[in-house]
């Protein structure tokens, strides 16, 4: 049944629930500012509020529930109605007799109920210190989910718009009644369905003012659609998929503070899950899907996989297994990996070293056991390091063979078995009992040999290597730094950068030379010595993009504040002695040697883990 109604006619008689298998609140500034502009535009156009043809269109809503009932699940339109609700809460905060929000009976996803109640309470009871209260709320980790944070940020944005923040469209407290009237009289279209078929069609809907459906949501809808068409018990089987995605979205929201997530979106996690596990029985093609979206992305991959299954029961089983196994992968990433990382930080370290390969490895490993119990994680890290050192030093031959060899490692972690087969395979590659590549021979010996032969690369060219950061990180924690501090301060938001301690564009005065033309020979000699090692690992430090930008052209001593803030204990200890520009080149060389000695003794030559 489809209806044309005003927003007020929809919200006043109905009770809305956002089911947990839907994504939680997702709007940010990019969507909210156009919403504010719409309110202002239609306020300007509708001085005659009786002119119905001029009313604002507030979107399409799909409801699921029994016809004739007043209780509905909100399948499409939840972002708009949630934003309107938050806006009206702010209106009531600023104008106490504006209680229109009380006519919207909205229950959010279960894991945000308490958070929304906290927001309501603060807006109803706080006075002029509201921004301080909201900031404290954002800093309170006890209540935070990502959707809760977005709700608080939306409230702050509305308040800032009313208070006249220059970058925002200007709302006026005196006109709140007019804004509410625009919303109340806004045109809406409503579709009401009494079965779950509608949920399977969500991916076909598009709202140009909202957020485009994510790849994960498209896959969810595709799975539900195929189950609805092919199942003997569609409602029961669709509910299994809905329950799986309810858990997935809840874990996604509560995982916002897990350091290792970085910028790993839910769509990225889905891609890695499909590469590693799929429906739980994958034993080949661990490089597919090749990307998050598009022709080679997750949606097309699942679509093709469903097409290959020519029996209805197989289609239904596949769809349910993909959803439930994706839930297990989320549990591994959000719960099991962080817990194991507390016991052995190498779990997180291998994700820093090579996220693409390690997340596939860990998704499979944690289904068969705990990789920290039998040296597997130590071997995996060392194996990756040997691979990277050999590859960096020019051994690019037969890249396809490298891929197939990694595929054999993943395959060795068999569904339902222990991890010994994979452990033995890594050992065979390391010792040369099996050939990782025809050209690489004995993996362990080859890494050692090339580490010595290619010494100049560490001294002169380490800046261009994407694994340099990992060796600097390991160097720091070996010398007393807290790995948790470095991860939190540098890695968590994927803001990592490599800083030149003696900057490549350092000013002459920071080299002790006030007048270059009068001291040209001395200046050129100092710079020639520095330039010879300026891109070597001894002159490099972990940093963040913002700190690197502000510190980049200053003297080494000016970088110390950032290094201390990041928890780089050894770097601070060394750089504190870099006071004489005439010794900069020597100091860089000394630091280079200390890092190389550490890498040789503590990282490459780890024979003990291979016994």
Q: Using only CA atoms, what is the Rg? A: 29 Å
Overall 3D shape? flat
Tally the beta strands: 8
Q: Which structural class fits the helix and strand makeup?
A: alpha/beta
Distance between the termini: 70 Å
Mean pLDDT: 86
Give the strand order, joined by hyphens, for the main sheet.
1-6-3-4-2-5
- Helicity, in percent? 40-55%
Low-confidence stretches: 203-209
Number of helices: 26
Task: Count up the domains.
Answer: 3
Taken as a percent bin, the fraction of beta residues is 5-15%
- Mind summarizing the main beta sheet? 6 strands, mixed
How does this model look, in words?
This protein has 611 residues and is α/β, with parallel strands linked by helices. The protein folds into three domains: 2-204, no CATH class; 214-343, no CATH class; 477-595, no CATH class. It is 55% helix and 7% strand. The protein has a six-stranded mixed sheet with strand order 1-6-3-4-2-5. The chain starts with a strand and ends in a 7-residue tail after the last helix.
Descriptive terms for the model:
two-stranded antiparallel ribbon; flat; 611 residues; 26 helices; alpha/beta; 55% helix
Brief synopsis:
The protein is of the alpha/beta class and 611 residues long. The chain contains 26 helices and 8 strands.
């Amino acid at each position: 049944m489809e209806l044309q109604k005003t927003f007020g006619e929809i919200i006043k008689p109905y009770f809305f629930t956002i089911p947990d298998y839907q994504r939680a609140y997702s709007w940010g500034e990019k969507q909210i500012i156009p919403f504010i502009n719409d309110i202002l535009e239609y306020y300007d156009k509708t001085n005659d509020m009786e002119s119905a043809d001029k009313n604002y269109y507030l979107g399409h809503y799909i409801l699921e529930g029994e016809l004739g009932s007043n209780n509905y699940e909100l399948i499409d339109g939840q972002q708009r109605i949630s934003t309107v609700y938050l806006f009206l809460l702010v209106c009531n905060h600023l104008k106490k007799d504006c209680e229109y929000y009380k006519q919207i009976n909205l229950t959010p996803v279960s894991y945000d109920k308490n958070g929304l109640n906290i927001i309501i309470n603060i807006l109803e009871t706080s006075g002029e210190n509201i921004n301080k209260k909201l900031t404290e709320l954002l800093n309170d980790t006890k209540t935070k989910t990502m959707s809760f944070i977005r709700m608080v940020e939306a409230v702050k944005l509305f308040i800032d718009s009313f208070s006249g923040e220059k970058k925002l469209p200007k709302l006026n407290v005196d006109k709140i009644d007019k804004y509410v009237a625009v919303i109340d009289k806004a045109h809406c279209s409503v579709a009401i369905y009494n079965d779950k078929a509608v949920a399977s069609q969500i991916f076909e809907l598009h709202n140009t003012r909202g957020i485009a459906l994510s790849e994960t949501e498209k896959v969810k809808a595709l799975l539900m659609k195929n189950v609805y068409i092919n199942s003997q018990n569609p409602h029961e089987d669709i509910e299994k998929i809905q329950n799986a995605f309810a858990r997935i979205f809840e874990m996604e929201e509560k995982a916002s503070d897990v350091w290792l997530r970085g910028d790993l979106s839910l769509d990225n996690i889905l891609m890695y899950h499909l590469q590693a596990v799929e429906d739980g029985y994958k034993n080949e093609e661990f490089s597919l899907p090749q990307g998050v979206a598009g022709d080679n992305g997750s949606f097309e991959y699942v679509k093709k996989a469903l097409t290959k299954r020519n029996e209805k029961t197989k289609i239904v089983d596949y769809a349910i297994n993909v959803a439930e196994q994706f839930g297990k992968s989320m549990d591994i990433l959000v719960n099991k990996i962080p817990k194991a990382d507390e016991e052995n930080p190498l779990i997180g370290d291998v994700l820093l070293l090579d996220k693409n390969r390690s997340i596939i490895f860990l998704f499979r490993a944690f289904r068969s056991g705990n990789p920290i119990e039998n040296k597997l994680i130590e071997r995996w890290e060392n194996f990756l390091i040997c691979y990277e050192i050999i590859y960096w030093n020019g051994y690019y031959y037969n890249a396809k063979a490298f891929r197939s060899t990694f595929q054999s490692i993943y395959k060795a972690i068999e569904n339902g078995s222990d991890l010994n087969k994979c452990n033995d395979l890594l050992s065979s590659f390391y010792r040369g009992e099996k050939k990782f590549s025809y050209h690489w021979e004995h993996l362990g010996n080859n890494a050692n040999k090339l580490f010595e032969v290619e010494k100049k690369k560490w001294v002169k060219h380490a800046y261009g290597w994407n694994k340099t950061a990992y060796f600097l990180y390991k160097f720091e924690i070996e010398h007393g730094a807290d790995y948790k501090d470095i991860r939190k301060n540098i890695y968590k938001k994927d803001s990592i950068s490599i800083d030149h301690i003696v900057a490549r564009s350092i000013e002459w005065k920071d080299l002790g030379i006030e007048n270059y033309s009068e001291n040209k020979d001395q200046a050129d000699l100092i710079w020639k010595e520095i330039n010879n090692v300026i891109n070597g690992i001894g002159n490099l430090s972990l940093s963040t993009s913002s700190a690197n930008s502000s510190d980049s052209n200053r003297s080494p001593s000016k970088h110390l504040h950032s290094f201390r803030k990041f928890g780089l204990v050894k770097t601070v200890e060394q750089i504190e002695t870099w006071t004489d520009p005439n010794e900069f080149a020597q100091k860089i060389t000394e630091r280079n040697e200390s890092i190389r000695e550490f890498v040789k003794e503590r990282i490459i030559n780890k024979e003990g883990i291979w016994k």
